[in-house]
Design a protein that fits this description.
Oligomer: single chain
Largest sheet: none
Shape: globular
Distance between the termini: 48 Å
Order of helices and strands: HHHHHHHHHHHHHHH
Radius of gyration: 22 Å
Number of strands: 0
Number of helices: 15
Length: 351
């Protein structure tokens, strides 16, 4: 078994248990039965002092059943994000920074804060028909860009052990604040758990294995919010990560590296293999929920995704500067240029 085998053996039974517990019609009898099963298995593991992996798999399966049945019976109340007022103020500041094109500020609001009300119908249609609607939905991509921006901003502080710990704590705190500000969608919460696990591993000087973090995040996420397993965003987010973790490394290796030298064709192949890996794993869930598959996903991800990533990084910088009421003209001009280029490319692909 691989080094990450233990967390996989625990995470998958818990996921299966939560799925069954959520799908079965909620009832007090079901919840009590799952609680009794969980206590019986836990009592057996304690008394027998067993170390058999199968016993712990059954224990986590029972835990998932209990968590899913209880959450379905007593769901937590939902509502708008706790920072809805702060998000509205950020949007007002963005609209006042003086961008030349009227569509730039709404696109910044959509890609940074998740506020899509200002986008025109033609822009929303271009994202949808080009197969890149996932870019508009705040996800791990956006928090990943935020994470990279934070890492670059904190890089001048140094690389000593104490400094690295402080930087990790700051990154986790700012990432959590951003997730709350942006509405805490399932994919954002997944990305936040990823960052917390990665930075915690860095603090403890442990290697951050992608597969281990993926399944640990799945386990933690389902315990915190088991009803999210029914969310398309939750399913697509974790399925995409499974594609990146299991298929992408194999596909990327088909085009070997040439001694670390810059190879444009290899970069293109990396983008293609990443798009195919994510699409193959998410296609069944996308078809189940939406009844369609984007036919131009490969072209859209090669052309539009780099532009969207670059624009989102610039948009986050604009958002931070707009919070202080100031933004250089060069940045607003660059944002105007990138937004028009991105929308133009999407419209061409959609047509």
């Amino acid at each position: 078994m691989a080094p990450h085998g233990d967390i996989v053996r625990l995470s998958l039974p818990l996921t299966a248990g939560v799925a069954v517990g959520v799908l079965i019609p909620a009832s007090h009898l079901l919840a009590l039965s799952c609680a009794a099963m969980l206590l019986a298995v836990l009592w057996y593991c304690i008394l027998s002092r067993t170390r058999k992996p199968s016993a712990y798999m059954v224990l986590f399966l029972a835990t998932g059943l209990f968590v899913g049945a209880s959450a379905a019976l007593y769901p937590l109340p939902g509502g708008p994000g706790v920072f809805a007022g702060a998000r509205a103020r950020r949007c007002a500041r963005l609209e006042a920074i003086g961008v030349a094109r009227s569509g730039t500020a709404p696109l910044v609001e959509a890609l940074v804060l998740g506020e899509r009300g200002g986008l025109g119908r033609d822009v929303v249609a271009a994202f949808r028909e080009s197969g890149t609607a996932h870019i508009l939905a705040l996800s791990g991509l956006h928090l990943g860009i935020f994470y990279l921006c934070l890492s670059k901003l904190l890089w001048p502080l140094g690389r000593g052990p104490a400094v690295r710990t402080c930087k990790s704590v700051l990154i986790m705190a700012f990432a959590a604040a951003y997730v709350l500000l942006a509405g805490a969608s399932a994919s954002l919460v997944r990305a936040l758990i990823f960052i917390i696990l990665r930075e915690s591993a860095a603090i403890m000087n442990r290697r951050a294995d992608l597969v281990r973090i993926l399944f640990a995040s799945l386990l933690i996420h389902l315990i915190i919010s088991p009803l999210e397993i029914r969310s398309p965003g939750f399913q697509l987010s974790y399925l995409a990560l499974c594609g990146i973790a299991f298929l992408y490394p194999k596909m990327e290796a088909w085009y070997p590296s040439d001694g670390g030298r810059f190879d444009p064709l290899r970069r293109v192949w990396q983008a293609v293999s990443l798009a195919i890996s994510c699409q193959l794993f998410t296609a069944p869930a996308a078809w189940l929920h939406f009844g369609t598959l984007p036919g131009s996903f490969l072209l859209a991800n090669i052309l539009a995704l780099p532009l969207a990533t670059l624009f989102t990084g610039l948009a986050m910088t604009l958002t931070l500067l707009a919070a202080g009421g100031w933004c250089p003209a060069a940045l607003t001009h660059a944002a105007d240029t990138l937004s028009s280029l991105l929308i133009g490319v999407l419209k061409i692909i959609a047509s």
